[in-house]
Design a protein that fits this description.
By secondary structure, this protein is α+β, with helices and mostly antiparallel strands. Helices cover 46% and strands 11% of the residues. It contains 13 helices and eight strands. It has a five-stranded antiparallel beta sheet, sandwiched between helices. A three-stranded antiparallel beta sheet has the order 3-5-4. The longest helix has 16 residues. Bound molecules: glutamine. Glutamine binds next to loops. The site of glutamine has 11 residues, from loops.
Length: 304
């Protein structure tokens, strides 16, 4: 049994590479479809800012839905509890891009992490601003959180998703028809696709999550009460219809993205990023979930 965190991460990296069942990469965004699934990275940033990593931790990947944590933090800072009139706080029990529930529930998405809910959150931030200005604000938030100005949007990924984003267009138009979109669907979606196309390395992603650790030594970007609420939403809704399984196996608040990244928070202790682009049936990283489960077990990290 390895004893120190660097040794544990090296061992996890070796274990993940020993099994060649990597899962399948997301292909509905063509630009992501050509990525080699046989990659793995893990990084842990402590409350004090120490950083440990193993594997492909300097490789950039598309963080996708993980950006919904940042946009939600910004939207809550802007709208406060008024945001909850537009979007709920319950697990959806459905796929991230499901459309049926939205009609059954009169255009109020179940939670801010499924696509429909995240589109509403982006729309809230966009209201009263131009898309460019809004993206500038999101980038500034992410860069400040990570303490790193070298974080950018991959325009090819944003364009690729826009060109094939019929499902998200359907969601946005349905929201508009229900009176739950303030901006034209193409503007809200253009902003949404761009923030989803932010790229980071596992090291940068782990650092960017430190503002959610809730420690006096970590960046203070939002109120402590709001940090706890964001973590509650990550635990209950961060992995879509795989949220219950993730909570059972890992026991930490976390947010996944279809690029294969996962950001998990150990309150008061650390921010963890894993990346492996092959996905499980819920659209969450297959090896990333496995690695998180093992790390949490070895370190005895859990919110329970
Ligand atoms: N941009 C992606 C989409 O809207 C994000 C989905 C995800 O990461 N789960 O489909």
């Amino acid at each position: 049994m390895p004893s120190s965190l660097p040794e544990i991460l090296d061992q996890l990296n070796a274990d993940m590479r020993a099994d060649d069942n990597w899962g399948a990469v997301a292909s509905y965004i063509p630009e992501l479809g050509s990525i080699d699934p046989a990659q793995f990275a893990i990084a842990v940033a402590t409350a004090d800012g120490d950083l440990y990593s193993a594997g492909d931790a300097d490789t950039l990947f598309s963080v996708q839905s993980i950006t919904k944590v940042f946009t939600l933090a910004i939207a809550l800072g802007r709208a406060g509890d008024h945001l909850w009139k537009r979007v709920g706080r319950e697990p959806s029990g459905r796929a991230f891009n499901s459309i049926v529930q939205l009609e059954a529930e009169a255009g109020r998405p179940r939670n801010p992490f499924i696509n429909a809910g995240a589109i509403v959150v982006t729309d809230e931030i966009l209201t009263g601003r131009a898309p460019r200005e809004t993206l500038g604000e999101i980038m500034q938030f992410v860069r400040t959180a990570a303490g790193d100005d070298d974080i950018h949007i991959n325009e090819n990924v944003a364009a690729s998703e826009n060109a094939h984003g019929h499902r998200n267009y359907a969601l946005a138009h349905f929201l508009a028809s229900a009176g739950n979109l303030n901006n034209p669907p193409d503007q809200t979606l253009g902003t949404y696709f761009h923030h989803c196309a932010i790229e980071m390395t596992a090291k940068q992603l782990a650092m960017s999550g430190r503002f959610l650790i809730d420690s006096p030594n970590a960046p203070r970007m939002i109120l402590p009460a709001r940090i706890r609420r964001l973590n509650a939403l990550m635990l209950t809704c961060g992995h879509y219809d795989g949220s219950g399984d993730f909570a059972y196996r890992v026991g930490l608040p976390a947010k996944s993205g279809v690029g294969g990244g996962i950001l998990a928070i150990v309150p008061k202790v650390a921010s963890i990023a894993v990346w492996s682009p092959g996905l499980n049936r819920y659209g969450n990283s297959r090896k990333g979930t496995e690695a998180m489960a093992r790390l949490a077990r070895v370190m005895e990290w859990s919110v329970f």
